[in-house]
Structure formats: structure tokens, C-alpha cells
Amino acid sequence: DYLRDPDEIERQSFVQIRQLTDLSRFDANQQQVAMRLVHTAGDPDIVHDLQFSPGAIEAGLAALHRSADILCDIEMVSRGINQRNLRGQVYCFLNLPTVAERARQSGETRTMAAMAEWPMHLDGSIVVIGNAPTALFRLLELLDERAPRPALIVGMPVGFINAAESKQALWDIASSEFQTPCITL
Known about the structure:
By secondary structure, this protein is of the alpha/beta class. It has helices at residues 6-20, 28-41, 56-65, 75-79, 99-106, 110-114, 119-122, 133-144, 163-177; strands at residues 51-52, 70-72, 90-91, 126-129, 152-155, 182-184. Helices cover 48% and strands 10% of the residues.
């Protein structure tokens, strides 16, 4: 016997998250993001590494109200975005027919090659990088080259090679030099 009602599962999950997780350093909107991340990871301790630059939540909400597009580094991230209430488009260019060949010729990752498509969509967008540290580094390079600024960067790439460094670079550069709100874990 197990609980089957999806609403009750979600309700109980978030009650438990609130009991297990110290959310006191976050405002109400940040707490919502933090709880979703804890729910996704199944680990209350991840909130210790969660950072929001000033105005990040407000910038993201304003972008969504303006029907901003969302750019993702991989399909799994784009598929995980609930599009029910979105008015903008969710883009991931990783599987375009030209990307694999472009990556092979340039000797870079496919996510880096796919980002050649990003500049025309960046202005006012929300960027969500949830897999590839090289994508986060490439985004920072694009911004350094004066590409249009997104409204918000969510930088949470995974792995052991370049992951921590790319997130630190995002925190150091995007929130100060580029004046672009960001969230990172």
C-alpha cells in the first residue's frame, strides 16, 4: 500500500521539506525555489550552497510576465520546465543537425557548439544551464563579447570538471561585471 494521490504526495513532500530544511536565510520567493531544488535533489543540505544575486527572483518573474523565452543547455532541462503557464518559447539547440558537426570541427562540446544559436534569443531571456559547465563558460564568453543580456541566468551545471569553477565565474562575473541577475548552486 502506498500513497497515490499526486496532490497529497506533493503536499506531504513540501511539509517534510519545510521540516527538514533551514530556509531562514531566504525570502518567501527564494524559499519556493529552494524547496523545489530540495524536492528535486532529495537533499535538504543543498540549500547551503544556493545563491541568489540581488533581484534575481524579481528579474525572472518580470521576464516571465513579458513572455520571455527560456534557453536551455540540454533537452533534459528544457523538458523539465513546466510550460503550462509560459507565454514565451523554451529553446534547446543541442540536437540541431549542424551542431554535432560544428562541435567536431571546432573540437568543443556539443553544448558549446549549440550556443552559436543563442545570441539572437538572449535579449531579456531566462537562461537555464543545468548540465554542461562548458555551456556556462561559453555564455560568459558571449556576454563578454557583448551579446545581448538575458534577464536571468540560472547556472547549475553538474559534474566534477569545470562545474564549480563555472558557477564561481558566473557568480563573480555575471552578478557584478555584467549586472545580470543569477541563481547558482
